[in-house]
Design brief:
The complex is a heterodimer of chains A (117) and B (427). Chain A has 117 residues and is α+β, with helices and mostly antiparallel strands. Chain A has helices at 21-36, 87-99, and strands at residues 2-9, 40-45, 53-58, 61-66, 75-83, 107-113. Helix content of chain A is 25%, strand content 36%. The N and C termini of chain A lie close together (11 Å). Chain B has 20 helices and two strands. Chain B has a two-stranded parallel sheet with strand order 1-2. Classes of the chains: A alpha+beta (117), B mainly alpha (427). The A-B interface holds A 35-39, 41-42, 81, 83, 85-89, 91-93, 95, 99, 116 and B 1, 13-14, 16-18, 20-21, 60, 62, 115, 222, 225-230, 233-234, 256, 279, 283.
Chain lengths: 117, 427
């Protein structure tokens, strides 16, 4: 089964310098571990929300909106696509990712199964 | 899964998930220490029970694998104290553990990595003293981490059959004193070929099930692909490992397009190509690129899996079935037939040759394969022959061949397809 993990955090309360070197190293190790376990299909971090563009459809018209989007508190900072034998295994990998972060981080991983029917 | 669980149930499920993730490494490491898979499993089970007591209360530790290893070793010390017989059969473990008590380094012996242990395990479960059936079952169990139950379900056989197969395989390993090691450079190539074949067999049984009602068993494909990806991580410098992984990624990219809503088989020319999985296709191309680059570095020609992956890649590059570059495919099959001759390769080459030079040329090859007698009883020989005879407007013979093919497969989805092809040729 394939799961998409969306990593959300609130930039207002996150460390402004981003992940410190030891966290970055830990993430690198985890990514390697997930690759070697045959679990990781794809992963990437995303550029800041300020650079985002939104295209909105309403009443049959599309509107293009450039950031910053002040209304959004939590933003998606990255994603990770995994293939595991069960949802629980995907949850455990997501938990491992979160556990790498120190107490200065408040974040959330949302796990969604891909609809492959 | 049910979403309304109590916190305790949730905690237990979390423990089970972490346990399943860690189990293959744990067993591989413990087997090196105690020199016996069964004892390793017992110790791991002890650690599992300890985890079930402690993790729901304290949370999953930051290094679950290390925690389980340390706990299993502690259990081993307890057991050795209680059981003199165990102390005799586990001299290495006793030694190691005593040394470790002076300088504790939980789960991190210098110079021995987890990858080494898992490689030792995969070369053991695919050891030539074991039959291929035993290799498959033991590899899925010890390297893939599947339970006996799951293997039985995947192969549509009773659990007891798989359990017995695994028990017997472990006994053979013990009795033949199969060393728990990665083979030397000199014997690595043939031993690796056996490992690759086992993984290929597992995937293929999922991709083209030899029995049962479904044409495919997608979970078994997933397991085969996962094993290939694991092996890629363990042996990143071996071109053929990348070749096999690339082949499986490319084959798997078509899984969803290979059956219709009524779970009937859809063959390549009739597949809805928009349903192909482009993530897997991309991964397949990348693996194929690595296989070629690594082979070039060694000045080695492309291996058998890399060549097959290259053929699969040509198919995926065609936007429609008509766009398929059959000339290139025929060329690759010719190369494959020259370097790794087999009647199956010849049969496939016949199909490619038919697409380039017409059915008469194809039939010539098929007939010589049939005359060799090496594919007697292989249903696809007759299916291909039926197809070629149909193209040559010899309906009665075509019909007879399709019916013969249908009688030779135990897979009911395949039977249905072959009967419907036969029905196209009514006298």
């Amino acid at each position: 089964m394939r799961y998409l993990m969306l990593i959300r955090f609130d930039p207002a309360v996150a460390p402004t310098a981003g992940p410190d070197p030891s966290l970055a190293e830990g993430m690198g190790r985890l990514i390697e571990e997930m690759t070697k376990a045959g679990v990781l299909l794809d992963t990437a971090g995303l550029r800041p929300i300020e650079e985002a563009t939104r295209i909105r459809l309403a009443g049959g018209t599309t509107t293009i909106l450039d950031g910053p989007f002040i209304e959004s508190k939590e933003v998606i900072g990255g994603y990770c696509l995994v293939q595991t034998r069960s949802r629980e295994e995907a949850v455990e990998w997501g938990s491992r990712f979160l556990r790498l972060h120190g107490p200065e981080w408040t974040m959330e991983v949302e796990i969604r199964q891909l609809d492959q029917s | 899964m049910s979403r309304d669980q109590s916190p305790e149930q949730q905690a237990i499920r979390a423990v089970e998930a972490a346990w399943r993730i860690e189990w293959p490494q744990l067993i591989a490491g413990l087997t090196r220490l105690v020199g016996d898979i069964d004892t390793a499993e017992d110790l791991a089970q002890d650690a599992h029970l300890a985890a079930l007591r402690q993790w729901p209360r304290d949370g999953v530790p930051s290094n679950p694998g290390g925690w389980l290893m340390v706990t299993a070793k502690r259990r081993a010390i307890d057991r050795i104290r209680r059981d003199a017989r165990l102390a005799r059969i586990l001299p290495l473990l006793g030694h190691d553990l005593l040394a470790e008590r002076r300088a504790p380094s939980p789960g991190e012996e210098p110079g021995i990595s987890i990858a080494d242990d898992r490689l030792r395990m995969v070369f053991t479960t695919c050891h030539p003293t074991l039959s291929q059936l035993a290799q498959v079952a033991l590899t899925l169990r010890m390297v893939g981490g599947l339970t006996t139950e799951e293997i039985a379900r995947a192969y549509l056989v009773p659990r007891s059959v798989v359990a017995q197969r695994i028990v017997r395989a472990k006994r053979i390993i013990r009795e033949h004193r199969v060393p728990y090691e990665v083979p030397d450079r000199s014997e690595l190539a043939p031993r690796l070929a056996a490992v690759l074949e086992v993984i290929y067999l597992i995937f293929n049984e999922g991709y083209a099930a030899t029995s049962g009602q479904d044409w495919m068993r997608a979970e078994l494909c997933d397991d085969g692909l996962r094993l290939a990806r694991i092996l890629t991580g363990l042996l990143p410098a071996e071109p053929e490992v990348h070749g096999l992984t690339a082949l499986l990624e490319l084959q798997a990219s078509r899984v969803h397009a290979r059956s219709d809503t009524a779970r009937r088989l859809v063959l390549l020319p009739d597949q809805d190509r928009s349903r192909w999985d482009h993530l897997l296709i991309r991964r397949g191309y990348a693996g194929l690129g690595r296989a070629h680059a690594l082979a070039l570095q060694r000045r080695a020609p492309a291996g058998r899996y890399a060549l097959q992956a290259a053929i699969a890649a040509v198919h995926t590059m065609a936007a429609t079935a008509e766009d398929t570059d059959w000339r290139r495919i025929a060329g690759l099959y010719a190369l494959l037939a020259e370097r790794f001759p087999s009647p199956i390769v010849e049969l496939n080459r016949a199909v490619a040759i038919t697409m380039v030079h017409g059915p008469t040329a194809g039939l010539e090859i098929v007939d010589s394969v049939a005359a060799s007698g090496r594919l007697d009883g292989y249903h696809l020989l007759h299916a291909v022959r039926g197809d070629l005879l149909g193209r040559l407007r010899r309906p009665a013979e075509a019909r007879a061949e399709f019916l013969r093919a249908a009688g030779l497969t135990a897979n009911t989805a395949e039977q249905a397809l072959l009967h419907s092809r036969a029905a196209n040729y009514v006298e």
